[in-house]
């Protein structure tokens, strides 16, 4: 055992592959699907097939949306593990260096897939294998306050009947199925909230419309209504019992695994801006000197140093959260720290790079302005900046949600 | 010199040179001058004079350097010294300290909690570390942490990581005392890293002495210059006319324990390139001056003035092409990052219970988001600082290039560390501003990051 914060040797090839894919497949179509919002990026089908192949061969180190599953049994628990969580965050960051919107549109790599991987039992895992699952939590009347879910699931025989409206469903139109969060009994509060895998072709499931957005325009964001949609009781993820003691914990466990992924997206997107800006500044005669005090360098170089330092902090916090997941350490605090830091750094870096590059940065001729639009959502979905701070504060201060509202 | 020209306002007392005085201003300044004369003392209108002993609590008080020891020359001149081997890299991402490192951290943490923290306020005031504290820091082996085993030290391999963890743990007790305790070891580590066989044999045995006679020593790189660039020191070294050595001239500032140091490592420009020179305190032409600063006061900061200081040809430590010097600057910045992390952790550990106990408007202030989020951000940025520092340290220990990593760590520790110091005081409100609580000291100490060069090194 010794402290080492380099990307593990065994993941380097994977990261390099992801980087090549990002550079050679995603970048060339990046602007195309930013402009043609709602058009299906057909190029991704071939890429998804390739990723499936890599995954089958084991070359992907278990990376991807399903890489967040925590393996509770097997191997030597005393040995430090660099597993699928770490492989996932590093490769997701590389892909988002290519294009965040396209990464989010990757077939069979939805947040729903991460949710299934996090909480499904082995039978469900097998049954939903190879399916593209999106995630439906938010409703028109609430965002961060997931406990306010009003979509209902009522057991009727061997089926749950689901009614309600979900918004902001990423890949809601393109996915095969949706992980829907609904309450079994609103009067029982958080504990009654469960997630269900709902096939898209289920009668009563309707994609109402697609949103037009500030960024990640390659990714479709749907409004979906559920009207007496019936799903098998086998499709409830996790424990069907309403356990008031355990409360929300089951459903929220998904977030411990997906937040580092979203943090990794911000890390990747921001690095795209940093890499290009470093190049453009160099062309303009400004180079960052790591030994000379920042205060003695050109203001642009000093600013760049600050951005890079913040960015690296976000990246390392993200790696830490994933490493903890790989080693079965509880990581709610670290996952929220990573998401909070990477989320705000993503915005600061991409927006500052536009400013540093002036009209070149602002123009559609470069992708800097696009990255500055794409990054914003990463500080919002899977828990806003403020929610992450709330979680961190409660953990550090040891306060309940009733004490620290 | 006329009274009028003496009373020109600019350039003194923090008054910019653009200021001018009107007639009333002259009158006030004149009265003030009168108020400072001995006359008032003679009619006993003022408290008894301060003791006239050298004290670094006063700036401008000059004395010669400590001259208690001469180091007997030993070893083979010009032969390369023993070098610690780079730490073996496993290639696995891991945030767990090694067993030896953890043991060391546990010991130092106990020392920081039991000895350092209780002594911090008094040491800050006195601008000096208590002798028994420094003695016990020797007992736990701080000075020999970075010295290879074959030279009487404890490290089998390069110990930048262990040094970083130790500096962090010590600074959790107090940054000023941590600097005072780590300064001698920093010089020893430097000699271990870059010294010739002769330099190592001459100086290192003194640092591993078990009788408590380990010399104070100081790594003097900072200079009293606005926009100071450590890579271009204005202190100069020129080859002496007889060719037997070098002549050093210049002034170094914020030199820890300069009044008691028996050995200095001084940064100076030689042929336009920065280099390090070993200067024994008994050398003629050296003088120290108290140089107390905003914070890190327990480290007894001094100015070191070098006037035609002659050192022998073998006083050069390492290469003269700037490479050793630059590496020294980086390792020193790394140590300051570790000190910032420890101090920022102290802030977090202090404000956490405070905001939960302190009540306003009928409930603990921690229950308010504006307060709680401040604490959350301290925790987030602190962990970011820590990981940046650890990454730079682990690369340094493994013998990899860490110039970029330490620059990023330093930037974060400077900016976020200061923010944490600021928020620490703010969270306690008026209580944070008074010395009853340590947060005002941490505020002053954390401003040192980004300013301090040299002094400590891992």
Structural commentary:
The complex is a heterodimer of chains A (405) and B (458). With 405 residues, chain A is an alpha+beta fold. Chain A has three domains: 9-126, Acyl-CoA dehydrogenase/oxidase, N-terminal domain (Butyryl-Coa Dehydrogenase, subunit A, domain 1, Orthogonal Bundle), CATH 1.10.540.10; 132-237, Butyryl-CoA Dehydrogenase, subunit A, domain 2 (Beta Barrel), CATH 2.40.110.10; 249-397, Butyryl-CoA Dehydrogenase, subunit A, domain 3. Helices cover 46% and strands 14% of the residues of chain A. Chain A has helices at residues 12-35, 43-57, 84-98, 100-104, 111-119, 122-127, 249-283, 299-326, 332-356, 358-362, 368-374, 385-397, and strands spanning 133-136, 152-156, 159-170, 177-183, 193-199, 205-210, 221-232, 236-237. In chain A, the strands form two sheets. In chain A, strands 1-4-5-8 form a four-stranded mixed β-sheet, covered by helices on one side. Chain A has a four-stranded antiparallel β-sheet with strand order 2-3-7-6, with no helix packed on it. Chain A starts with 11 loop residues before the first helix and ends in an 8-residue tail after the last helix. With 458 residues, chain B is α+β, with helices and mostly antiparallel strands. Among the domains of chain B are: 3-42, no CATH class; 329-446, Butyryl-CoA Dehydrogenase, subunit A, domain 3, CATH 1.20.140. In chain B, 45% of the residues lie in helices and 14% in strands. Chain B has helices spanning 3-6, 23-35, 38-42, 99-126, 131-139, 160-173, 175-194, 197-207, 323-357, 369-397, 403-428, 430-433, 439-446; strands at residues 62-64, 216-220, 236-239, 245-256, 261-270, 273-280, 286-290, 301-312, 316-317, 359-360, 363-364. In chain B, the strands form two sheets. In chain B, strands 1, 2, 3, 4, 5, 6, 7, 8 and 9 form a nine-stranded mixed β-sheet that branches. In chain B, strands 10-11 form a two-stranded antiparallel ribbon. In chain B, α6 packs parallel to α9 (323-357), α7 packs antiparallel against α8 (197-207) and α9 (323-357) packs antiparallel against α10. At the A-B interface, α8, α9 and α12 of A face α9, α10 and α11 of B.
């Amino acid at each position: 055992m010794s402290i080492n914060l380099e990307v593990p040797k065994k993941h380097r090839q994977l990261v390099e592959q992801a980087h090549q894919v990002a550079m050679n497949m995603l970048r060339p179509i990046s602007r195309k699907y930013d402009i043609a919002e709602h058009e299906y990026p057909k190029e991704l089908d071939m890429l998804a097939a390739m990723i499936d192949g890599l995954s089958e061969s084991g070359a992907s180190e278990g990376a991807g949306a399903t890489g967040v599953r925590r393996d509770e049994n097997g191997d030597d628990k005393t040995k430090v593990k660099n597993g699928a969580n770490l492989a996932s965050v590093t490769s997701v960051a590389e892909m988002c260096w290519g294009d965040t919107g396209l990464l989010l549109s990757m077939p069979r790599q939805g947040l729903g897939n991460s949710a299934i991987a996090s909480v499904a039992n082995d039978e469900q895992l097998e049954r939903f294998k190879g399916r593209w699952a999106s995630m439906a939590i938010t409703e028109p009347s609430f965002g961060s306050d997931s406990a306010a879910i009003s979509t209902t699931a009522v057991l009727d025989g061997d089926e749950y009947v689901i009614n309600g409206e979900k918004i902001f469903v990423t890949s809601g139109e393109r996915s095969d199925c949706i992980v829907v969060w609904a309450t079994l009994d609103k009067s029982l509060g958080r504990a009654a909230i469960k997630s269900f895998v709902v096939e898209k072709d289920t009668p009563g499931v309707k994609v109402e419309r697609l949103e037009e957005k500030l960024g990640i325009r390659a990714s479709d964001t749907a409004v979906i209504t559920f009207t007496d949609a019936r799903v098998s009781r086998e499709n409830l993820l996790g424990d069907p019992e309403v356990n008031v003691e355990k409360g929300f914990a089951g459903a929220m466990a998904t977030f411990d695994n997906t937040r580092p992924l979203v943090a990794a997206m911000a890390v990747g997107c921001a690095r795209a801006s940093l890499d290009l800006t470093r190049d453009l500044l160099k062309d303009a005669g400004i180079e960052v000197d790591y030994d000379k005090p920042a205060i003695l360098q050109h203001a642009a170089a000093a600013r760049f140093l600050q951005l890079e330092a913040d960015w690296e902090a976000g990246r390392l916090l993200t790696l830490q959260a994933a490493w903890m997941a790989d080693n079965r350490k509880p990581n709610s605090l670290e996952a929220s720290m990573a998401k909070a830091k990477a989320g705000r750094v993503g915005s600061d870096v991409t927006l500052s790079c536009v400013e540093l590059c002036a009209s070149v940065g602002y123009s559609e001729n470069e992708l800097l302005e696009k990255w500055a639009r794409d990054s914003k959502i990463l500080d919002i979905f899977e828990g806003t900046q403020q929610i992450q701070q709330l979680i961190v504060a409660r953990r550090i201060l040891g306060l309940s949600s009733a004490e620290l509202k | 010199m006329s009274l009028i020209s003496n009373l020109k306002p600019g350039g003194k007392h923090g008054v910019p040179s653009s200021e001018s005085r009107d007639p009333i201003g002259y009158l006030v300044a004149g009265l003030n001058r009168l108020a400072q004369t001995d006359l008032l003392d003679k009619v006993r209108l003022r408290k008894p004079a301060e003791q006239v002993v050298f004290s670094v609590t006063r700036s401008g008080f000059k004395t010669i350097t400590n001259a208690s020891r001469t180091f007997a020359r030993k070893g083979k001149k010009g032969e390369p010294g023993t070098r610690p081997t780079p730490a073996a890299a496993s290639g696995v991402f891991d945030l767990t300290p090694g067993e030896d490192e953890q043991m060391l951290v546990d010991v130092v943490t106990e020392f920081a909690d039991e000895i350092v923290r209780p002594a911090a306020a008094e040491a800050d005031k006195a601008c000096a570390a208590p002798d028994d504290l420094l003695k016990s820091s020797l007992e736990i082996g701080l000075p020999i942490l970075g010295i290879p085993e074959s030279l009487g030290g404890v490290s089998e391999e390069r110990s930048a990581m262990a040094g970083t963890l130790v500096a962090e743990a010590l600074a959790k007790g107090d940054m000023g005392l941590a600097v005072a305790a780590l300064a001698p070891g920093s010089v020893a580590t430097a000699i271990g890293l870059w010294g010739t066989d002769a330099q190592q044999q001459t100086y290192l045995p003194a640092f591993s002495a078990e009788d408590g006679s380990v010399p104070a020593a100081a790594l003097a790189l900072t200079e009293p210059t606005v926009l100071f660039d450590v890579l271009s020191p204005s202190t100069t070294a020129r080859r002496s006319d007889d060719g037997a050595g070098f002549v050093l001239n210049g002034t170094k500032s914020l030199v820890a324990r300069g009044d008691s140091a028996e050995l200095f490592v001084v940064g100076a420009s030689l042929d336009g390139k920065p280099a390090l020179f070993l200067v024994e305190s008994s050398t003629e032409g050296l003088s120290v001056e108290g140089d107390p600063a905003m914070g890190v006061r327990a480290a007894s900061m001094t100015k070191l003035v070098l006037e035609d200081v002659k050192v022998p040809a073998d006083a050069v430590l390492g290469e003269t092409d700037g490479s050793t010097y630059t590496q020294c600057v980086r390792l020193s910045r790394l140590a300051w990052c570790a000190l910032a992390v420890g101090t920022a952790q102290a802030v977090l550990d202090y404000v956490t219970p405070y905001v939960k106990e302190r009540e306003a408007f009928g409930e603990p202030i921690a229950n308010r988001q504006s307060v709680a989020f401040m604490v959350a951000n301290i925790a987030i940025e602190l962990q970011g600082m820590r990981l940046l520092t650890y990454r730079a340290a682990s690369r340094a220990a493994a013998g990899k290039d860490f110039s970029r990593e330490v620059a990023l760590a330093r930037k974060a520790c400077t900016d976020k560390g200061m923010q944490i110091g600021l928020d620490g005081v703010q969270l306690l409100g008026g209580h944070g501003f008074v010395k009853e609580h340590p947060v005002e000291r941490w505020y002053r100490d954390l401003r040192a990051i980004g300013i301090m060069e040299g002094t400590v090194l891992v």
